[in-house]
UniProtKB/TrEMBL annotation:
Function: May play the central regulatory role in sporulation. It may be an element of the effector pathway responsible for the activation of sporulation genes in response to nutritional stress. Spo0A may act in concert with spo0H (a sigma factor) to control the expression of some genes that are critical to the sporulation process.
Database matches in InterPro entries: CdaR_GGDEF, CheY-like_superfamily, Homeodomain-like_sf, HptR, HTH_AraC, Sig_transdc_resp-reg_receiver, Tscrpt_reg_AraC-type_HTH
Transcription regulation recorded as keyword: yes
Modified residues (4-aspartylphosphate): D57
Keywords on record: Cytoplasm, DNA-binding, Phosphoprotein, Transcription, Transcription regulation, Two-component regulatory system
Ranges of residues in domain Response regulatory: 5-122
Cell compartments where the protein resides: Cytoplasm
Classification via SUPFAM superfamilies: CheY-like (SSF52172), Homeodomain-like (SSF46689)
Gene3D superfamilies: 3.40.50.2300, Homeodomain-like
Native organism taxonomy: Bacteria, Bacillati, Bacillota, Clostridia, Lachnospirales
Designated name of the protein: Stage 0 sporulation protein A homolog
Pfam families listed in its UniProt record: GGDEF_2, HTH_18, Response_reg
Species this chain originates from: Coprococcus aceti
Residue ranges constituting the HTH araC/xylS-type domain according to the UniProt record: 431-530
UniProt keyword annotation of Transcription present: yes
Amino acid sequence: MDKYKVILVDDEEEVIDVIERKIHWDMLGFDVVGSANNGVKALELVEKQQPDVVITDIKMPYMDGLELSRRLNNDYQNIHIIIFTGFDEFEYAKEAVHLEIEEYMLKPINALELSDCLKRVKNSLDKEREEKLNVEKLANYFNASLPVLQTNLFVSLIEGRVSESDYEKFLAAYQIDMKGPLYCCAVFHTSEHHVPDGMNPLLLSMSVEQQIKDRIADTWKCKVFTYLGNSVLIIEIASEDAMAELTDACDRFCRWAYRVMGAVVTAGIGRVCDSLLNINNSYEGAREAVSYRVLYGTQRAINIAEIAPKEQKAAVQYEDANMHELIKSIYLGKRDAIEGAVHDEIEKLHRSAQTMNRYKLTLMEMVGTFYRFCANNFIDFDNFSGGISNPYEKVPEMDEVTLTAWLIDTSMAIGEELKNARNNTSRRMVTDAQNMVVDRYMEPDLSLDTVCSELGVSNSYFSSVFKKETGKSFISYLTDYRMDHAANLILETNEKSYKIAEQVGYQDANYFSYVFKKRFGMSPSKYRTEHTGNK
């Protein structure tokens, strides 16, 4: 172990020489690294050598020992100070207790007394060194554990278990530096039922998460961790406009994962929030978006804000402990899921309602839940109640068979209405895009990106909806529209091909001719000849 460094300070050189010769410094664990004959030179030497101990006289020119001690305490609080002085100065020195002098010794210096004093100082230094090493060990352990601690905090955040009073404290303690200003959550689900031959499902999921870190986390400012078998991302978002770009990035990853790794991955994107304290809402939206893969397919990203009308936000976050699964199955619109959820509700009803009054009250609460759910989704529940004029009165009087059938039929009817609302929203979006083609087909920069940007949706969602509604991709639709218009211009005018190309949005005449020939099987000039008879 390294020896402790000592500096001797006295304006009498013979005193310093005697001390150096009479003390067995090496055996005591010290090493004299320098000496000075006044306080000013001592400070210069301290700055250079950074000693552990300074032994100084009081009476010295320029700067005495007490002033030196005061300066050392201010600037080098870890240095131990031993003062030796004459008898007539001893009481004066003892009064300076606020200087935290380690030891006071009277001249002439006794080698045995100074050795004993140095032993006591060494014990203090050893304890300080041990404590410092322990603190360093704890710091190293904390830093090594930090990723796990951060993950535990993120899990608590998405579960909504962090209180507002503890929020800032935990972020600082676990060194979470996410400035936002907005945040959202993404959940990547890797199917366990579609795994390449010879591949372990857990290993595949771990491989997918590593690729998420390499391909998404490096581009987007986010934290990635595993929770309930899924890879979860908490992402910093500059503005809501970036959500479409994020969704497209996740969508490209899902398609890449299937093409390269054989992994069937679905990404769910939650809604934006303005604080990590509310990230649990975004997480629930992301999980719900993943569950919609039964409707929209796997190997893609699904943004909950795109598939659910924006005005349904309150309904999506609505929590009813008694009917949560039934509400969720209504959103999905699958009869088998609705039937299963209804039977579960009936079973819970019989298990919990121990009196007739409680039974009727619970059914009235279920009717109330239907009313609230429909109101949040801008649906008139009375139109789906099976013609019952007063459900609060009639439903509690139903027998079990009638009640079960009513719950299933009502849930299916509401689910179908929600589906129609989604379809109407999709059709309106497709119609808007088609109108943009009609109005702006002649603009060379009209593209899928342009349309999605103006509609405020991701490319992936828009492309899937457009293909479902029209039977072709948007690019194919735009190209066909341009080519049909070009064909009309060829037959109705005498314009050159390059002029017609410009009129339908093509700046490169050669590329226009290539696309035209691909559509009609002949060049523009031959098309004109064959259809007009002009040789």
